[in-house]
Amino acid sequence: MDELTTLSKGAGRVLGSPLRLLTGTLTYVAVVFAISTLGYIANGWPADDAAYMVLLTIFSVGYGEVRPIDTHFLRLWTTATIVLGCTGMIVLTSALVQVFTLFQFRQLLGVNKMQTEIDRLKHHVIICGMGRIGLQLAKALTEARHPFIIIERSADKAEEARALGWLVMVGEATQEETLRAAGIMHARVLASVLPDDAANVFITLSARSLNPAVQIIARGEAPTTERKLFHAGADKVVLPTHIGAERIVELILYPATDSRIQDAEHMADARRFLHDLGLDVEVVTAVDKGALTGATVGEAERRGAGAFFIVQIDRQNGQSIQHPGEDVNIEAGDTLVLVVRGTRLSAGAIFGMPAKPVKHGRTFVG
User: Fold this and answer.
1) Rounded-to-integer distance, Cα 204 and Cα 210, Å
2) Residue 208: closest CA among 193, 189, 195, 223
3) Cβ atoms of residues 209 and 195 within 8 Å
């Protein structure tokens, strides 16, 4: 890697020299053209004839003299234009050839450097598409220092990724050749996050056929695509629209959770630990005349059918009950800390539901 970096910097220094030579030569030719033209004009030639004469001379076209060169001054002036102008054009042609050659060399060097870095990747992540999700995924992997490569069809987006220091290749992730070039045979995870369901299904099929062991996480826009992606070989399917809607519902059902966990660092640590066990922590408030308000902790947990456990109750008077027993009553205004498993949405909904009337004979009592 160090050798490639040194070679790239050396190529940049070498390339700078022809560019400076090209700029200097263009300036020199322009100055010769202007001064020579003014000399002919000073000798009584029209400006267009003078400019045309100098142009024919420095480019060595040989169409003939525009006007007779019949004075000693004109002969000397034309001789000087030939020598200085033709010399400038020779150097200019040489500089152009060097610039074009070295630009191609630098491009080839960049491609070889990228392929060398890709060949060194092992157990990396392949991100297909650098849209909003792909961008956030790349940022997160960068912070985690996990190796990854991005496959992006847009050259402009790929250039943006390179500017951020990310490894990226321009190509169609739906093509097996592109996946092979990205190191699919040695990859640990492939994340197909294009906003095109058909493309994600095709990428999943191709990746699974090339590497049966790779873990595939695919994005789906339509809910009906989820089954197709699993059938194509995806290990996990993410539906951004579904996740977004579920998050909004969580904010409605658990409005106190975010602020409570942000204020208490130990709560955030506990939530991360429980998340690894398939559990989560949520905070709810027992509403007045709610379905579980007035019930005991044991009754509430039985009503939840094991979906949650109450681990803490904070009263409005400031009292905090840690690990409440089954006989502790839930009062209106209590803030309850729940350990939730299964569907988090139904667990929160039950605390916000109004109490159902209880039937006594032919009447209902609220």
Assistant:
1) 10
2) 189
3) no
| pLDDT tens by residue, 35-85 | 999 999 988 899 999 999 998 888 887 777 888 888 888 889 989 988 998
C-alpha 336/C-alpha 295 separation (Å) is 13
Which pTM was predicted?
0.47
User: 8-42: per-residue pLDDT in tens?
Assistant: 444 444 445 777 888 888 999 999 999 999 999 98
Which residue type is seen at 169?
M
pLDDT above 70 for 249: no
| CA pair distance 143, 341, nearest whole angstrom | 30
Q: Which of 190, 272, 197, 189 is nearest to 239 (CA)?
A: 197
Ordered by where they begin, the domains of the chain are: 2-118 (1.10.287.70), 122-238 (3.40.50.720), 247-360 (3.30.70.1450)
- The tokens 């997160």 sit on which residue? 140
CA-to-CA dists, residue 42 to 4, 47, 50, 77, angstroms: 57, 10, 10, 11
**Residue 204 · residue 233 · CB < 8 Å:** yes
Tell which phi-psi region holds residue 239, choosing left (phi > 0), alpha (psi between -120 and 50) or beta: beta
DSSP string, 19-43: HHHHHHHHHHHHHHHHHHHHHHHHT
From the CB of residue 206, how many other CB atoms can be counted at a distance below 10 Å?
23
